[in-house]
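Sanity check. The docking grid for nicotinamide-adenine-dinucleotide depends on where the pocket ends up, so I'm generating a full predicted complex first rather than guessing from homology. Inputs follow.
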Amino acid sequence: MTSFRIAVIPGDGIGPEVTASTCDVLRAVAGSSGHEFLFTEVKAGGIAIDTQGEPLPEETLRIARESDAVLLGAVGGPKWDNLPGTMRPEAALLGLRKGLGLYANLRLAVLFPELKSASPLRPDLVAEGVDVLIVRELTGGIYFGKRGLEKSDECLEDGTPKGMEAFDIETYSEAEIERILRVGFRSAMQRRKHVTVVDKANILETSRLWRKVAERVKADYPEVTMEFMYVDNASMQLLRRPRSFDVIITSNMFGDILSDEAGMITGSIGMLPSASLGAPGTPGMYEPVHGSAPDIAGKGIANPMATILSAAMMLRYSLGLQEEGEKIEKAVRSVLSQGYRTADIVQDPDEPVLGTEEITGKVIEAYEKL
Ligand code: NAD
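Predicted complex below; grid placement will be based on this.
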């Protein structure tokens, strides 16, 4: 039996509801696998501001660091919207990313065939579902490069003074590129073994360095096939032939945009899980893509499946429990194929609509039957 320490950060809004459901599912996993999950609940976000005076108390970061993995619900809500930047709930997310050294963001865009009518894409394009993993570099590139705003002394060709001029610089080192590529290749080894490195190498020097490093890293993964694709083409191909992608590895900004596009293809924000990873052996953070959904908080109707699927990623990527992670995914699929839905993913008025606790119970039941 192995014991795993999991820091649970429920956060705000529906965060406590969806993390409680997920911990119940993990307890069922423990029950049938013989492993042990030791949960330590800590605060971050609005609730931490209210009770401890800051969005990310020191104790939360310390416990997260000492854990094998972190499970996060969501933070934020209208109550804290007018606070200054560093005191806003979202500052907790940045603090956790920085404090845990999380440089890779993995977003899984899975469209279960049972939910295909939620997709805005033509039914024939998604008839067999979609399953794309986007691996986005999280701590480098243009979002973290040098920036500035200054008055220009120059003019346009027609003599118009340029006025103020701003710049944001994209910088990537070989080491930063290599570590994110390795996350992508390792993930591909657990999936369909195909990576698409998305860049703009016809224009950007950084992209050309990405390609060079990618060729080198690829040599360590002979079973994985690799293709390069320009980001403009990738954004079209995701809509035209989404099933042809397995793992997309890309820079911070391109990943930011493409992961939202891929998520949209699934049509169900309540179903999208994510992981943020740092150096091997350090705790990863797992959270749903959706926010704290204040409009439905406390009503018992939130869809817990994005968080439950995030826990499946946690089992795969941080705890080495591949089989159990896969079983959770199969259990979710089985619940959907039996026609059970939460209110956000109902497509047919005849489908039974379940609340958060009820659908969690169905996932546990399905897990235990596998
Ligand atoms: P949101 O994702 O919270 O909600 C968007 C819509 O989707 C809402 O109608 C909501 O009811 C619905 N929804 C979201 N998750 C759902 C679920 N699991 N089940 C059923 N329906 C669900 O986005 P928003 O409204 O833009 O943001 C609300 C708050 O969450 C804001 O304060 C925002 O800053 C914060 N936020 C936090 C995170 C995070 O913690 N990582 C991410 C995004 C937004």
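Relevant for the grid: The mean pLDDT is 96.
Also worth noting: The first helix runs from residue 15 to 33.
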